[in-house]
């Protein structure tokens, strides 16, 4: 019996060794652009089997135990990142989102994907050293490409975060009109509230309340995000229901809890009685005062709400004395623990929807509809508890924190993110350094530091 087992064991070992060899061989092209090589890695290693909403379920998913593992991998993979759009962008020579770039880089650096239970069955999905290096090289190339035209020093062109531009090109006449409208209470049903009521430019572009107070003393059910640098977000609102600033500007005036106007006709009829405003509209918009022109002008004004010249911006531009030793070390800790994976780019966020770990909601309790996040818009289970990543620009002056406004201090917010998102805890001294770095992100508006 033992003699019969020896050839069988040898055969099994040969199969395993062959699998390992196949897994650690690569079909990478010998040459190609960084974009072409990273595409080859993603496709060769079957990444779209779990990071693609249209991925076919394999036949062996019918096996009870295997089926559960496969379903979990596909769900978790898609919840983490959808690679469809990034692949299309790569094929078309377009940039991918900052967060996508940073996630792929972190996976390559940590060698954390695919998960063990997947590679146990799909041997060819293991990343080889050459493939990992191809991802890393591509990410550095993509970072440098994204930094083109930005005022960072040469040594910082490959950082995950870049300094804010000083301005965005605008139509000055539209922006001037939009500024008037931004502070105009006639956009509300009872003439008491303006955009600035919840997004005060003197208090970090927010109202510093857990929930904003709307018309007739009603309160909303989600924390108001800052309007500063919102022009750099890939969409607007926590759940991404507005694709741009113009769509966002059209929401609150007609929201019955927020500004409470009955309809746009009610707003237009009030504005139409203002001869000076009507004349100003006519100079910019030939068709005069319309809902579309109102929201377009407000959006144009919001393009001016950038806050450059933070200590961190000056540091990235080459001023080494702009930040303290603790602040710089805080930035390094910020990167080390994966914070820059989602909070990347010039806005340190605002480029993706990210899953807020369910442990956070178990910790907090009392889950309500706003906690479902992106799910409220897409109705897809993979989007439950996913939110547009907020910018960390000026985060030190925009408390309270998170979509629910439940956290009062920046230190507590940092500790909770480390715990629930990075699955770690750090000594108080390290947390304090990260907080100091975050405080160095406070920028200036119209030459004055935000307070």
Mean pLDDT: 92
Superfamily at the CATH H level of the largest domain?
Cytochrome c-like domain
Radius of gyration: 25 Å
Query: What is the CATH topology of the largest domain?
Result: Cytochrome Bc1 Complex, Chain D, domain 2
State the strand order across the main sheet. 1-2
User: Low-confidence segments, ≥5 residues, pLDDT <50?
Assistant: 7-24
Biggest beta sheet attributes: 2 strands, antiparallel
Count of discrete structural domains: 3
Helix content: 40-55%
What structural class should be given to the helix and strand makeup?
Answer: mainly alpha
Question: Roughly how many Å apart are the termini?
Answer: 81 Å
Report the oligomer. Answer: single chain
Q: Describe the global form.
A: globular
User: CATH architecture of the largest domain, please?
Assistant: Orthogonal Bundle
- Give, in order, the helices and strands: HHHHHHHHHHHHHHHHEHHEHHEE
CATH class of the largest domain: Mainly Alpha
> Which percent band covers the strand fraction?
under 5%
Contiguous helical run count: 20
Number of strands: 4
Descriptive report:
- Residues 7-24 have low confidence and may be disordered.
- Helix 2 packs across helix 7 (129-146) and helix 8 crosses helix 13 (291-302).
- This protein has a two-stranded antiparallel ribbon. A two-stranded antiparallel sheet has the order 3-4.
- The protein starts with a helix and ends with a strand.
- The protein has helices at residues 2-23, 34-44, 64-80, 84-91, 98-110, 116-119, 129-146, 172-182, 195-198, 245-249, 264-271, 275-284, 291-302, 311-316, 325-336, 339-342, 358-364, 375-378, 410-420, 428-439, and strands at 353-355, 386-388, 444-445, 448-449.
- The protein is globular.
- It is mainly alpha-helical.
- The chain has three domains: 28-146, no CATH class; 172-302, Orthogonal Bundle (Cytochrome Bc1 Complex, Chain D, domain 2); 311-352 and 389-446, Orthogonal Bundle (Cytochrome Bc1 Complex, Chain D, domain 2), CATH 1.10.760.
């Amino acid at each position: 019996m033992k003699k019969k087992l020896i050839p069988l064991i040898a055969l099994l070992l040969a199969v395993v060794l062959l699998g390992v060899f196949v897994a650690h061989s690569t079909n990478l092209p010998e040459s190609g652009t960084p974009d072409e090589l990273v595409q080859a890695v993603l496709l060769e290693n079957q990444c779209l089997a779990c990071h693609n909403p249209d991925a076919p379920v394999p036949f062996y998913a019918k096996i009870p135990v295997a089926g559960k593992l496969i379903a979990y991998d596909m769900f978790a993979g898609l919840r983490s990142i959808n690679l469809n759009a990034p692949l299309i962008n790569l094929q078309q020579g377009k940039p991918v989102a900052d967060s996508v770039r940073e996630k792929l880089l972190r996976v390559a650096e940590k060698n954390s994907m695919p998960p063990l239970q997947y590679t146990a069955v799909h041997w060819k999905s293991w990343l080889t050293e050459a493939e990992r290096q191809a991802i890393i090289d591509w990410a550095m190339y993509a970072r440098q490409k994204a930094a083109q035209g930005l005022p960072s020093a040469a040594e910082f062109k490959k950082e995950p975060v870049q300094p804010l531009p000083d301005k965005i090109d605008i139509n000055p006449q539209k922006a001037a009109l939009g500024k008037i409208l931004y502070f105009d209470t006639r956009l509300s049903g009872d003439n008491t509230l303006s955009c600035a009521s919840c997004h005060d430019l003197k208090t970090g572009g927010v109202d510093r309340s857990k929930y904003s107070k709307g018309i007739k003393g009603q309160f909303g059910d989600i924390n108001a995000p800052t309007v500063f640098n919102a022009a750099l977000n890939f969409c607007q609102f926590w759940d991404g229901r507005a694709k741009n600033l113009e769509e966002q500007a059209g929401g609150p005036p007609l929201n019955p809890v927020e500004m409470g106007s009955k309809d746009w006709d009610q707003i237009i009829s009030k504005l139409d009685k203002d001869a000076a405003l009507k004349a100003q509209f006519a100079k910019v918009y030939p068709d005069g005062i319309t809902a579309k022109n109102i929201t377009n002008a407000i959006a144009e004004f919001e393009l001016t709400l950038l806050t450059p010249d933070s200590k961190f911006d000056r540091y990235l531009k080459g001023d080494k004395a702009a930040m303290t030793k603790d602040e710089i070390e805080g930035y390094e800790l910020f990167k080390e623990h994966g914070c820059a994976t989602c909070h990347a780019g010039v806005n340190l966020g605002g480029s993706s929807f990210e899953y807020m770990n369910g442990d956070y909601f178990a910790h907090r309790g009392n889950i309500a509809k706003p906690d479902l996040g992106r799910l409220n818009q897409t109705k897809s289970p993979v989007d439950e508890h996913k939110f547009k990543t907020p910018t960390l620009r000026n985060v030190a002056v925009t408390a309270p924190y998170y979509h629910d406004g439940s956290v009062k201090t920046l230190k507590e917010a940092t500790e909770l993110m480390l715990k629930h998102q990075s699955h770690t805890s750090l000594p108080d001294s390290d947390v304090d350094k990260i907080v100091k770095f975050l405080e160095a992100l406070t920028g200036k508006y119209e030459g004055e530091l935000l307070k």
